[in-house]
User: Fold this.
Amino acid sequence: MRDALLHRSRPLVLSAMVLGAFLSGAPAAATADGPPVVAAASLSGPTARITGTGYGLLTVSVRLTSPSPILASGSVDTGGSEPLYVPCPCAVLTRAGAGPGGHGRAELAVTLHLTEGSATDGTWVGRVAITSGQAGIWRLRGVGADNSTSHYQLLAAPTDVSVNVRAVDWITVTTTASPPPRRGRSSVVTGVVRLARSHRPVKGLRLNVDLTDDCTEEPATAVRTDRNGRFRVRLRAVSSRDDVLWQRRLNGRIAESSC
Assistant:
């Protein structure tokens, strides 16, 4: 599942070993022919709890210094099991622990835009919407930036940049497939979406669903819940090991998923 825009070449695949090397110490000063440096960073989120199907905004602000102008193009691959692709410069955010309901995305890549200063010494800001299912403590993992010499390496960032996002009454999704999936045959998939604590049905929520055994696929069938929070759709199974995969997208990005 790849959230979205692939621009020009030079994607970076980040392993845990590489990240450990970059984040083990404080950011170094920029050198004459070196990569950009994260001089300062902050992360903020909604002050009120996110409720039900509502959403809040995470805002990340980063001051980047660089011996040559930072390029506002390119892409970054965070190297996880489900890589995220966004235009860069960008910030990679991670959530500590499981979110409510266990289906909210725990890693986000946020495109940054220059809001103050210059491409050699300026403040870059990005915002991303998150659902109640993505609540938790979010931290800045690193910053992807290129000045023609760094090739979008993940830059070290202050390790204490975090924000606690709170939520209540996130969504729960229950699905069944009848008859059980068999390769090449159709099953009727039914589902119901309710709020976790109040148990109220969620009306008019759009989900993408499919029968698949591969969580890297993007469900192609869009459904919308009725006034009782239910949906029903006929789908063809790829194999007999298939499960019902569902996704909730927010502003074109995968926010929550059964995988």
